[in-house]
Amino acid sequence: MKLKKLLYDFTVCQVASAEDIDLEHEFSFIAKTDEELSLVCKTEDTPEKTIARDDGWKGFRIQGVLDFSLIGVLAKIAGILAENGISIFAVSSFNTDYILVKASDFDKAMETLADAGYTVE
Length: 121
Fold this sequence. Notes:
121 residues; alpha+beta; VC0802-like; 7-stranded mixed sheet; 2 helices; 7 strands
């Protein structure tokens, strides 16, 4: 399985209103529940107004389109990283999964996954 490094810095944050989010930016993962409105975006695109924010994330994606019938793809990656003391923040799109790790763990995460047989681009 191929993994593609995303060469951006990411921020995970909470915002008060969807009006604070600019959907014209390249990466915007939005989650809205009855309790919160969360956003994952490139750090440079973080809205000026946030309720809370956590900077310092790097990410990669699973290359290609993942069929919904596939089982355990994200769990396997998460397990490998967890066994090596690397926590993740995962988001999914219709096509694939994106995994964020703290920037200080990014190189270790990529090496660990390559050692486990993943192709890292």
